[in-house]
Known about the structure:
This protein is of the alpha+beta class and 221 residues long. The chain has helices spanning 24-39, 44-59, 214-220, and strands spanning 78-84, 91-97, 105-106, 112-118, 121-129, 132-142, 147-150, 161-165, 172-178, 187-190, 196-199.
Amino acid sequence: MISGIDATAIAMTSPIPSSPILAQQRLRHFVIAFSALLDRGLEQEQLIRTGGDLLAQLVAVDDWLPEAYAQPHPERYSQYLLHADSAERFSIVSFVWGPGQQTPIHDHTVWGLIGMLRGAEDSQSYRWENDQLVPHGEPVRLSPGDVEAVAPQIAGLHDIHRVRNLYDDRVSISIHVYGANIGAVRRSVYLEDGTRKEFISGYSNTTLPNIWDVSREQKVQ
């Protein structure tokens, strides 16, 4: 788990107001800062560390996620696209977990950062042993403000896991940043015996939050 905020991380470019009317600035400033981080051409390990610090700043305050992208589905978890980089270098999604919901065992094939915004979840890693998938270590619990990383190409970071809402009586929400347009990536889910099935997740929404209308903010000032 990534913890703490690196003092050398790229900072948000201007003060973040506390007014709910202007709370959309939080996501916009994160997008700008993360884009600048990718422009630096960092090695993946450094990108994950510094990007994790940025994500920790974003999820440290829970006042910015629009309600439309925080709605649970009664039967399955929801994955709402919040932003996709125009070059598909990264995407940001909100994962909304209804009470007791969980994923199947699955992989990502790209690096990812998971920041807990609301509620709690646990993540059980898996690894291959004798051609079978077996649990690796204890489940990692994420509480609000915590950040975890996944990456298939970095030693010590897992890429295959199962995630579940820790609560049976409330919604949990995590914010994920992936190194691709994750809804279009061909990935896999796995049965307990390692049987593999390809999937493309897509998204639960057809519209994005408008974080670029700064005219609204200027009228308020």
